[in-house]
Write a structure and sequence with these properties.
CATH architecture: 2-Layer Sandwich
CATH class: Alpha Beta
Order of helices and strands: EEEHEE
Shape: globular
Strand order of the largest sheet: 1-2-3-5-4
Radius of gyration: 16 Å
Number of strands: 5
Distance between the termini: 41 Å
Number of domains: 1
Largest sheet: 5 strands, antiparallel
Length: 138
């Protein structure tokens, strides 16, 4: 769907209900975006950056949204670093249902990570694929 045809809000959409504290705990706002705690966190401090505008794809953002997402992500990284002292972050967007997106509204995950939180983190996000074998890369 082209940007100009994207609806501003979808009342049935979880992320369009940003002002509803029963489904969204908003941490911070920045222009066209907001940060929220993930309802089913993969780790302590797992947040999502979400556009206020109801759009589906990362590639549907306009320039202002792209800038606001980046600035808000950096701000949340700083906050999460202060609060939880992670050793790293997994950052990702599941763009489309084939990529695993379950809420049809763009959102970017920022997941704090610590050494030892999984037995072998090599390959990171590639572990979504069944034949990912970091030992075969050398």
């Amino acid at each position: 769907m082209p940007l100009s045809d994207s609806p501003t809000r979808d009342p049935a959409c979880l992320f369009c209900r940003h002002a509803d504290p029963s489904v969204n705990t908003v941490v911070r706002r920045r222009g066209t975006m907001y940060a929220r705690w993930d309802n089913f966190p993969a780790s302590l401090g797992h947040v999502e950056i979400v556009p206020f505008r109801h759009i589906l794809s990362f590639f549907d953002m306009n320039e202002r949204e792209t800038r606001d997402l980046h600035i808000l992500a950096q701000s949340m990284r700083d906050t999460l670093t202060t609060l939880y002292r992670p050793d790293g972050f997994t950052i990702g967007v599941n763009d489309g249902s084939a990529a695993g997106r379950t809420v049809p509204h763009l959102h970017m995950h920022i997941i704090p990570r610590w050494h030892g939180d999984v037995p072998d983190p090599r390959g990171g996000i590639r572990h979504v694929f069944p034949d990912c074998d970091p030992d075969s890369w050398s």
